[in-house]
Amino acid sequence: MFQFIKRLYEKQKQLLLKFVKKLTNRHLEPTKLERQNVQKALDIFSRPLAAALEALRRRKVSGFMGSEVTISFMLKIIKWFEIHDVCNYTKAIYKRLPNKAPFTSTDDARLKWLEDFLKWLKEWHISSVEKNHFLTSETLEAITITTKSTIAKISHLLRDAGFTFVLTRRFNSDNLERKFSAL
């Protein structure tokens, strides 16, 4: 996957106007501490970067042919992040990001997509011959638990608790982590 992103970085290094403004060498060669930086991951798994790769692939630019699987993977991860980062009622409209719309129904197609995402993740894990090309067991477990609990919480809040909409960003544990990191 990173081979295409590295090629994009090398290609745009010589250009005055960049395809992706936030792509730096620190994204491609992070230190151990930087590997834990969520913002760097969000910069890599971003719509502008996926769009740049897609544009180069469609134009048949040398070195970007065969990037379809990488782009598809990136778009899955981007959608997963967007679904888990619904923060207000209007962002989906103004930013034109339908995945960031509040959940208002248990029949929302994004809930089905999350269930399908879990199936895809399991199939990917089973089919990965080389475990170096898969997530760590801890990351796999965290994504699985987060996804299952998100589906369950949204369904419960809308169906049983009488909520009219759900914002998923409120499900995170940042405040708790911040509290214990200060101790």
From TrEMBL:
Residue span, Transposable element P transposase-like GTP-binding insertion domain: 2-95
InterPro entries found in the cross-reference section: TNP-like_GBD
Top-level division of the source organism's lineage: Eukaryota
PANTHER family recorded: PTHR48257, PTHR48257:SF1
Protein's name according to its UniProt entry: Transposable element P transposase-like GTP-binding insertion domain-containing protein
